[in-house]
Design a protein that fits this description.
3-stranded antiparallel sheet; alpha+beta; 303 residues; 18% strand
Length: 303
Amino acid sequence: MAKVTRKTLDENGNLVEVAVAPQEINEVSDIKISEPVKKIEPKEYIFQLTQKFYPGNTTKPPYPENFFLRNTDIIFDEESGTERNIRYLEGVNTIFEDEQEHLSDAKKNQRPQIRFTNGYLRVPNNKTSLIKFLTSSNMFDKKKQRMETVLPVYTLLNFEEQEKQAVSKAEVRMSAMKLAMDASVDIMIPHAQFLGLRFKNEYNVERTDKAIRVDYLNFADKNPDTFIKTYNNPLVKVRFLVNKAINVGLIDTNSSKGQAIWGDTKKFIAQIPDREEPLKFLSEFCLTEKGKEFFTQLKSIAD
């Protein structure tokens, strides 16, 4: 092994080379290779009929006890870019008819049963040809470039995707609930008003902040997407401020048709377009360059 040296200065300021103890450097060990996540193949694939044969009939099950598929179809093959005939035959490892020419006529004329029982067909993962046929046929609702003349007959149940969606929904719901629980009163009240929650009880008595928060939590629980989307939104806060100013008479939208004016000085604020709701327009106006001065005045009066 060649001696390793490095240049440095000695005590007299001269440039010299000194030996360096070799370091055990394993460059390969410093490279981290993340292995791709392997998709776990299910033990069986479960197909379900997409059409309920007896809708609205409570005396019959939604699917027939037995439903049979034909074992042939004409599909558009994405790989070759051509139309091809497919045919499922038991024990044959290809579904393309042009690759089955070597088979005997007796084999080609087989009609293996592809039977849905009470709407479902369970296929073990080792029946690869049947799975390939079912996922390639135009009768499969998720077939890419499916022939439009053929109606979809069945779908493949994707439990992994369903579980992911369920987890995602649960996470959104929990996030919304946490926001609702931790929100300050200054954030909660404008947001609660925007969401249409009640601020007075059936006797027209003002409800407490705690009572409003109960409804706030319930809304977050039942409508988490809407809750998160509008939570702490600048437009929601501005809308609350404008609505409050209109209710107490600081802003007048009734005296002059199509105009918003200050309630005390009667000075002009903005022209409200025809068929535009004053509250909505003024709230959005506050967040524009033209409405900046109005918003500043509004905040100073409200404070």
